[in-house]
Structures are given as C-alpha cells and as structure tokens.
Specification:
The complex is a heterodimer of chains A (about 240) and B (about 190).
Chain A lengths: L11 E3 L2 E2 L2 E2 L2 E2 H19 L10 H20 L8 H17 L12 H23 L14 H51 L1 H38 L3
Antiparallel strand pairs in A: 1-4, 2-3
Chain B lengths: L1 H19 L16 H134 L5 H14 L1
Helix pairs in contact in B: 2-3
Classes of the chains: A mainly alpha (about 240), B mainly alpha (about 190).
C-alpha cells in the first residue's frame, strides 16, 4: 500500500533549467497548466458569443466575474477596481487548482506550501507597497490604534506589527493545510476501503463519498477565503481602516 | 473555526496511516522538499501570469462589455417602455378629450335640431292656421252670401204671400207698390 503522502510528491516530467535555476516541468506545473487552460476555455470560449441572453457557459463565466466583482466592490470599494483583474485571476486560479485536485489521480498544486506561500507573499508585498505608495510614511500609523492610552500602545503596537507580518503565513497555511488535510483524509479512507475489503469496505467508501462532497465545498470556500482576505488586506492598505 | 479541528484530524489520520503504511520515500512531507520549490514557483509564475493576461486582456473586457451592453439594452427597453406608456397616456387623454368634444357636439346638434324642428313645426302650424283661417273666411263669406240670397228670397216670398193674403181678404189685386212700402215699413219697424 502507498503512503497517503505519496500523492503530494513532485514528479519531474521534463527537466528544464534556466541558468542554475531548476525550472523542470513537474506534475504540479502540468495541473497548473490544465487549470489555466480550463479557466481560459470557460472565460474566453464561454464568452465568445457575448450574448445578451447568456448560454450555460457564459452564465457561469459571468457568475464568476460578478461574484469576484461584488467581493471587490463590497470590501474595497471603487478604489479596488484597478486590482480587480489580479483578484479575479487569483480566485479563478485557486478555485480551479483546488477543484481539479479532487479528480482521481490528479495533483493539487495548492496543496504545496511553497505555491500558496508564493501567492500570499505576492499579495502581502503588493498590499504593503500599495499602502506606502498611497499614504507614504503615514501608512505606519496603521500599526498605532487610535484612541488608546499611550501606555497601552507599548503592548498594542508590537501586537499589530506581528499580526500584520503573520498575514502571509496564515493566508498560505490556511489554504495549504486545508488541501493537504482533505486529500490525506480521502487517501487514508481509500486505504481503509482496500483493507476492509468487500465485507466492511462500504463504510469508509460511503464516508469518502460524503467527504468528497465536503472537499468540493472546501475547495470553493478556501478559494473564496483567500480572495476575500486579499480584498480585506487591500482595503486596509487603501483606506487604512481598522 | 473548523479548519484547526479538521487539520488535527487529518494529522491524526496521517500518523495512524503511516503506522500501517510505508512512510514516504525520504521519510517526510513532500511539501518540505526544498529541491522541488524552484520548479513549482517558476511554473506558478508562468501559469499565473498567463491566466492574468487571459483574464485582463480577453475575459474581463468581454464580460464587462457584455454586461454593459445588457445593462444598456435593459435600460433602453425600460426607457422605451416608459416612453410608450407616456405616449399611450397622452393618446388616451387626447381620445377622451375628442370623445367628450364629440359628445358635446352631438348634444349641441341635437339641441339645435330640436329647436329647428320646433321652429319648423311652428311655421307649419302657423301656415296651417292661416290656410284654415282663409278657408273659414271663405266659408263664412259663402254662408253670408247664401243667407243674403235666402233673405232676398224670403222678402220676395213675403211680397207674394202678402199679395195673396191681400187678394184673398180684399177680393181685389193689391197695389204692388203700396204693399211693398208697407212691407218695407214693417221690416224697418222690427
């Protein structure tokens, strides 16, 4: 029997190098590619008619667009319009990676901390740059809560600073851990089905069916959570609201 | 939050499973294999940038264009409906005005007609009255003529009767002239 962690192993399908940098095409890259192609199909092929009365694919594409547009509008306001393409890309990319990971024998790129952390650090650094670009050094006031007695600031400012710098970690670990946990659970119970055989194997099998449904919800939910937290961080940087 | 509980459950499952199954080849999580980091990041950047370009250059313009067009169409249709409604209201008002005008006109015509009718009737009545009056006059004249004729006849008869009576009483023919004078006297004395 295989280890439940084996599904997360990176396999090099094509060895590539950029200088001294290992840029091999791996199974992770393959499924990212598939995610991008499917997302492109949905959003470009689905919108090819630009019909006033949308068909099924177009309705889904518009739904995704409106969903993220609403998120940006409600959480960031009109100032977030500039960043909408990035946020929509983020949502669609994570959503497709997450859901495609539920296909048997597939690979989930978002189950790797390096992938989620890379996205989170881009968001974190980008949002920090936006904050300083908009408010200059006043952005540092973000770490000083207003209307608090001075002696309390000694405690509060470090807490604010730490909580700010923890953001990329919480953002990336939340997504990574959810994907890791879900897929591991599925694999473990899959192993139970084989172990218990035809007599009692149906019990873990039924559990897997239910768990797959749950995983589908989580795949969507985690994409949503990642996106909405990005929106909230962006809102903090733009409006410095606490 | 469900996430920590869920993760802990999974970690337990991993522990339980690694007891029964072989551990991964290098004994750890594949996620912590640093050799695999750079290819993942490189291809993440490539895939993400590709999707970003697709989204910002093709998908978002197409969708926002479609949504705008739909919004414009709906707004245009609503405006057209509102305009049509307005026009209908104006038409109904105009129709009602014409209807009441026509009713007024009809009433006026009816009144005029009845007035004209009664005037004509009056003229006819007057004409009839005149005609009848003329006939009555003529008839009266005729009656008067006949009466005078009859009266003349009666005078002649009175002369004859008086002459006869005189002849019978006196036994001799009467003097016609003296008798006529006597009769005229008697007639005048009456």
């Amino acid at each position: 029997m295989h280890s439940p962690m084996e599904q997360f192993e990176i396999k090099r399908l094509l060895d590539l190098r950029i200088g001294s940098l290992d840029a091999s095409y791996t199974n992770s890259a393959l499924w990212m590619t598939i995610a991008v192609i499917l997302a492109t199909l949905l959003f470009v092929y689905g919108m090819r008619q630009r019909a006033l009365v949308p068909g099924r694919l177009q309705a889904v594409a518009e739904l995704g667009y409106e969903f993220v547009a609403g998120m940006v509008r409600d959480n960031v306001g009109s100032a977030g319009k500039k960043y909408f393409p990035f946020i929509l890309t983020l949502f669609v990319f994570i959503l497709f990676c997450n859901t495609l990971g539920l296909v048997p024998y597939s690979f989930t790129p978002t189950s790797h901390i390096i992938v989620t952390f890379s996205m989170a650090i881009v968001v974190f650094v980008g949002v920090t740059i936006i904050g300083f670009a908009r408010h200059g050094l006043h952005f540092l006031e973000f770490f000083v809560p207003k209307g608090v007695p001075a002696w309390l600031l000694v405690i509060l400012v470090p807490i604010e600073v730490i909580s700010y710098f923890v953001r990329p970690f919480s953002l990336s670990i939340r997504l990574f851990a959810n994907m890791l946990a879900g897929h591991t659970m599925l694999k473990v119970f899959g192993g139970f089905v084989v172990m218990l055989g035809i007599l009692a194997g149906w019990a873990p099998l039924a559990f897997i069916v239910a768990l797959t449904g749950l995983e589908l919800i989580i795949a969507f939910l985690q994409a949503y959570v990642f996106t909405i937290l990005t929106c909230l961080y962006l809102n903090d940087a733009i409006h410095m609201s606490h | 939050m469900r996430t920590p509980v869920y993760s802990a459950l999974a970690a337990l499952a991993v522990l339980g499973a690694s007891g029964t199954a072989h551990a991964a080849a290098d004994g750890g999580m594949p996620q912590l294999n640093f050799h695999d980091f750079s290819p993942q990041v490189v291809w993440l950047v490539i895939a993400f940038v590709a999707l970003y370009l697709v989204m910002s250059k093709a998908a978002i313009p197409a969708i926002s264009d479609t949504l705008d067009k739909r919004q414009a169409k709906i707004q245009g249709d609503l405006d057209a409906a509102e305009k049509a409604n307005e026009e209908t209201r104006a038409l109904v008002t105009a129709y009602e005005k014409r209807l009441s005008d026509a009713r007024e006109e009809a009433r006026r015509l009816q009144r005029e007609r009845s007035e004209a009718d009664s005037a004509a009737a009056m003229t006819k009545l007057a004409e009839l009255g005149q005609r009848l009056g003329a006939k009555i006059d003529e008839a009266e004249k005729r009656i008067a003529g006949q009466r005078s004729q009859v009266l003349e006849g009666i005078e002649d008869m009175a002369h004859d009767i008086a002459a006869d009576v005189y002849a019978k009483l006196a036994g001799e023919p009467a003097d016609k002239a003296a008798l006529g004078a006597k009769i005229a006297l008697a007639k005048g004395g009456r």
